[in-house]
């Protein structure tokens, strides 16, 4: 039986069947196809390279601290052959009647006391900028932000002239007093105060009869503890690694921090290679306080992040 004209026209107008694509569509999967450079393997490989690049100097420092002068000058610092860490530590303790550990104690004094007082001052200033209203507050805070743009090396000469006028050059105060102020710490403390201290809690304390100092010490300071720890760690690291200010202020080796003392020894190493193991071993010991500080205080950051997520 021959097909009717109407059926023939319908067969000619019908489109050819389309085969379904084997690749799932973006609408079906809810995500776009990723290139090979964004695959998990490529990302993990890039992260592994970054970790190796970051840890390589520390690994070199650990292995080089076990070498004597001959092993370091031979260029075989990445192996533990000829392990002599105990001997290097003994020579480090006996060199100059134990002057290295005097430098170490000086650095702990400068960094520990200076960072603690600086963090407290910065948090108090940031709290005042955030919670109080007074004439010219924003203009004064703008001056604080301008202080962030000034490099610390540019302030070394003015600070030296001021220290000379007050008679504190070549003393502990010449290094300790200038590090008590950190404009970036004030800015950071104001940000933490705005995010962690609700105004309602302060008003409730004032209604109960607490004074402003009691409100700050008992409520504000405890709520902003993650910010206090953050400013402390930033300033502790900056003071511990500080080199130029002690170089300008100090001439007595008994007052040197460990950074300046190791610099003096590295200058002697050009004429006397026996100082090379002392400098490397001393540099390894100088890293330990920073690692300990970050490991012991990181839990405060975790507490702050958890509190922020709850809010």
CATH class: Mainly Alpha
For this structure, the CATH topology is: MetI-like fold
> Helix tally?
16
**CATH H level, superfamily name:** MetI-like
Shape: globular
Give, in order, the helices and strands. Answer: HHHHHHHHHHHHHHHH
Total count of domains: 1
Tell me which oligomeric state these chains represent.
single chain
The biggest beta sheet is recorded as:
none
> Whole-number radius of gyration?
31 Å
* Average pLDDT level: 83
Q: How helix-rich are the residues, as a percent range?
A: over 70%
Describe the structure.
Keywords: Cell membrane, Membrane, Transmembrane, Transmembrane helix, Transport. It is found in: Cell membrane. This protein is an all-alpha fold and 311 residues long. It has one domain: Orthogonal Bundle (MetI-like fold). The chain contains 16 helices and no strands. The longest helix has 36 residues. It is globular and about 70 Å long.
Brief summary of the model shown:
Residues 104-297 form the ABC transmembrane type-1 domain. 70% of the residues lie in helices and 0% in strands.
Observed structural traits:
311 residues; MetI-like fold; 16 helices; disordered C terminus
Lay out the secondary structure.
Layout: H1 5-13, H2 26-29, H3 40-64, H4 69-73, H5 85-94, H6 99-131, H7 137-149, H8 156-166, H9 172-176, H10 183-196, H11 199-207, H12 212-223, H13 225-240, H14 244-249, H15 258-268, H16 275-310
Helix pairs in contact: 3-16, 5-16, 6-10, 6-13, 6-15, 7-10, 10-13, 11-12, 13-16, 15-16
